[in-house]
Amino acid sequence: MEARLNVFENNVTAKFFRYINSAGKVLSNSSLPAATQELVKIRASQINGCAFCTDMHTKDATAAGETAQRLHMVAAWREAKVFTDAERAALELAEEGTRIADAAGGVSDEVWANAAKHYDEEQLAALVSLIAVINAYNRVNVLVRQPAGDYQPGMFG
């Protein structure tokens, strides 16, 4: 499989990714737990069908010490006992924030309130921004049919 467009060598997309990568660095340096960040990126990528990001973030999470059991359970997090209440709240917010078109009112007040029980304002801001950033990455990769499977942890940073 070959991508429709080489986003790494194209001047416009390469510049776009430099900016979006800067936004991602701000978020990775926030107080939102790194494990939660990876879980959210994986779940949004699964929903969006982004194989490239799913591959990348499961490998990055593994390299950071995440367990195989938890990674295998991300897609079925509601029934899985391996996530904390805070992680579940983040995953729920990620799902509703990713599936905005599926809900007439966007993210429900209940989902927001649940996330706010577990995260302070800075962490909520990071979580909202993270959901937006991973969705942007997902959309580019899905649009160009970016192949997945070759990513090695740390190869982009």
Q: What is the terminal separation in angstroms?
A: 25 Å
Summarize model confidence as the mean pLDDT. 95
Q: How many beta-strand elements?
A: 0
Most strands sheet:
none
Structural class: mainly alpha
Overall 3D shape: globular
CA-based gyration radius: 15 Å
Low-confidence stretches: none
Tell me the series of helices and strands, N- to C-terminal.
HHHHHHH
Describe it.
It is a single chain. The chain is mostly helical. The protein contains 7 helices and no strands. It has helices at residues 11-28, 34-48, 51-63, 68-73, 85-98, 109-118, 121-144. Helix 2 runs antiparallel to helix 3 (51-63). The protein is globular, with a radius of gyration of 15 Å. The mean pLDDT is 95.
Provide the fold topology.
Layout: H1 11-28, H2 34-48, H3 51-63, H4 68-73, H5 85-98, H6 109-118, H7 121-144
Helix pairs in contact: 1-7, 2-3, 2-5, 2-7, 5-6, 5-7
Features:
about 160 residues; globular; 7 helices; mainly alpha
Summarize the structure.
This protein is mainly alpha-helical and 157 residues long.
